[in-house]
Amino acid sequence: MNKSNEILIFVEDLHKVFVTEEVETHALSSVHLKIRKGEYVAIAGPSGCGKSTLLSILGLLDSPTEGSYQLNDSPVADLSASQRARIRNREVGFIFQSFNLIGDLTVYENVELPLTYQKMPKAQRKERVQTALEKVSMAHRMKHYPAQLSGGQQQRVAVARAIVTEPSILLADEPTGNLDSANGDIVMEMLSDLHKSGATICMVTHDPRYAAHAKRTIHLFDGRIVEDEYTQSEVM
Amino acid sequence: MSTLINDIKYGIRQLLKSPGFTLVAVLTLAIGISANVAIFSVVNAVLLRPLPFKNADRLIVVRQQSRKFGFITGFSYPDFLDWRQQNPVLEDFAAFSPAEFEMIEEQGANKINGAMVSGNFFSLLGVSACMGRTFTQADEQPKEPVAVISYDFWKSRFGQDKEALGSTVVLQDKVYTIIGVLPPGFSYPDTIDDAQIWTVLVPAGEQRTNRTYCWLTTVGRLKAGISIEQALLLLGERHKQLIEKLGMGDSEILIYGLRDIVVRGVRTTLWILYGVVGFILLVVCANVANLCLARVSTRDKEVAIRGILGADKLRLFRQFTTESILLSLAGGIVGLLITVWMMTIFRVKLADFVPFSDSIRIELKELLFGLGLCLLVGIVLGVTPFWLMQRCRLTNVLTERRSLSIRHSRFSNILISGQIAIALILSIGMGLMIRSMLRLSSADTGFNRDNLLTFNVSVRRMNEQQRYQFSRDFLERLTALPYVKSASTDSSMPCSPRGSMAPVAVDGYTPPDGKQIRAIYHSVGTDYFRTLQIPILRGRNISTDEYQKKERVAVINETLAKTFWPDNDPIGRELTFCMRQYRVIGVAADMIQGNVRIDRPNHLFLPFDVFTEFNGPDLNFVVRTASEAGAVIEQARSILRDIDSTLPLKSTGTFKEQMNKRLSQERFTTMFLSVFASIALLLIVIGIYGVVSYAVARRTREIGVRMALGAKKTNILSLILKQGLILLVIGLITGLAGAIGLTRFLSSYLYEINTIDPLTFILVPLLIIAVSILACFIPARRAAKIDPMEALRYE
After folding, report:
1. Average pLDDT value over all residues in chain B
2. One CATH from 3.40.50.300, 3.30.70.20, 3.40.640.10, 3.40.30.10 for A39-64+78-234
3. Where does a domain end: B179, B214, B249?
4. How far off is chain B from A161, nearest CA to CA, in Å?
5. Contacts of A22 by beta carbon, 8 Å cutoff, 6+ apart
6. Are residues A103 and B312, on separate chains, in Cβ contact within 8 Å?
7. CA distance to partner chain A, nearest, from residue B421 (Å)
8. Between chains, do A102 and B306 touch, taking CB under 8 Å as contact?
9. ipTM for the assembly
């Protein structure tokens, strides 16, 4: 995860329209966005402004209705489902508000899961899982099931799962939303540490306190970027 | 590989996590898989597995058919020799005749089933003795009689003593030297499958020289490359030339594959049974798929997470199919135990009408079939949830939205309607068969079949006078027994399907179609009509005086009387039978001969003491008892021992038992359909209950809102019932259409019942409606009891 001025995400004139039987909802309109490698970006805005939709498109979970999207200089808007799955697996790490660990897998197996989809040899997987869990201080709980962990611990495991593939970018959707303030602070510290070690992070939050951890904050309102605010040190 | 192991580990964990689901699914699958494997093993043994003979696919059976009368006969001995010596299409040609040997042992005489076969019979089949030798054509020359015995006979009578070779057995008062023991399990399936002793066919007298005496069954092996059609063409022409040259009859040749002729009576039955278990497998799959769907609908989030982390469709498909294959393999393992149990029952129940039933067993082919079935079922069960899941939007994980329930419900509803349709088809089939069986068992036979006992005694060594005396003595002592009301004799027992038939003529009568009138002739003893309770409609019974004076009198049945004298009284008129004149003294009511399905044939009853020409080697006795007294048989045996200890009492049984044997195929099919239709009904009850319960759970919040808005309990009850009833109506309409199309395959089994029997087509759907409403009502009532406050808090 090297820090550089290379553009990792390049989004131009992006639109997303949801069409139901009678109604067209414009979730995103004319979004232009560049995220460089090593950046820590927060996406903020009120409920229903399109934060999660933007994150879904950035994470290749959804496709834009219009506009272009390049990840690592490669256009990704029109890829097939299996190509998207492959890129998600290798380039993107997700952290969700509700952790989204698989309840029937142990901590170790949850973290190992994305590596199994890469068909990585077992020994190498073990080493990577061990390292990731140590980074989030959860190595001692690797044989536990998610239900046996606290919310904060579950989110740390989710972080380990997100970083185990050494992705180009970490996408976090309200990562502290289901946590108390103490555990929320721990997770935010963890993300800051990851950023310091070179990770690119894009985090959706509506909490200005946590948005402040990021070096750049993008404000969305009614599907449009209304403000793109850098802290002094990050202004390019 | 490690991914597969991970999938298997995860799959096992998932199954163990829901023991209730796993247990129900495994047992349901076990029923479907076991029924299919068991029936496949029957079909394989009977229809598919090669016969255990050399070049079995080239073995044929040749018969002759009279063009004029349609009778099918075998070959005469001289014809057989001609065919064997010079034949352009057959490599070899052998003949045989079933035989019932009377074997004299220290304890007395015993009846042993056997066969007389031509010297080349075993070499044609490619069967060698496991000890000693089989016959050769040289054995056909009259010299010291020789015999070969079955392995079972060697085991039971000789205790597998090797000294059996060269020892002797006394059959029909002739001493035979045992020259060989046949291999274990050997049996020839066409008419002599129960033979224990084989002797060489060495006919004498008429049997050796008369070309009209067609008493031999034949088997041949076609030359390589010759088809049955080609053989029929060539042999047909040759046969035609031969009968023209000899000026004999008008017969033509019929050729069948050996297997075809052996299985032709059961082929349709087996395919029907196969169809039934196929339907059951569909119901089972639909049921388990529904269970899987209900379970998997709670896993949409897990699948989405896997998708987000990079699992592509193929990977997800593997995940789902691994789980479902594990489930179906578990069902297969449990099913294997049920299969073994079912096959034990099948072997017993099928033995009465299915050839090769001894060879029904689980071998590699059956195991592979079961494994293949498990994999197929597993894939089908895996595809269904995968198909629904892969359409699930990954972004729902972010928004916590669920999109699966509606699609799941629709698919689930289709499965339930399909199950109802199949259950209806099977139940209608069951209903038709049950109604038919009831009619068959209550059909008018023309005689009272209750409390009628029958057995026979070999009188082969007695002359006419001795037979006459023996029959008088034996009947007198029999009728003196406390539980015996009356007793008599008959050469063609009406419970037997094979009555002896011969032409009957009346001076001045010309049959309208030119065909001779034939009748089943009964050489009967005194008290015959009273014993069988056959009403005499006109005239009278044969009197004791007429028996004693050996007068040529006859009683005929009503159908025969109407044929010859439609407008006149037959009493006192003369008829000709076997070149002798008989005076008609009575007309008896019509009766069946063995099978109620066949139109009432002509019958001619003659006094036993007068008509002696065709009296066979056995005397058939019929006894009317006061109850179903098995004890009477023992008492009869005791009387017989008293008269002559060497005489065996054979073929004992009641009339009902004898006649029921003819219905074993129908009875088994009815039982089979009933069992599996009931299973299908049970499965649809479980299925409907599951689907409606799931719907109630899914709509709990909606129900709460409705109740908060003023809906009464009855409104909620009808809301939920309506959902079940819609599925029911769709299922019933589809099922009725299917039943109309498919029940025609049962037509050959039905007796006096139409394949679209109105009563069955009304009652069975009503039954399905009743059980379906019951299945809907329980969850519907639960829904109506929901507390609106609780429901509004429900997520």
Report:
1. 85
2. 3.40.50.300
3. B249
4. 9
5. none
6. no
7. 34
8. yes
9. 0.73
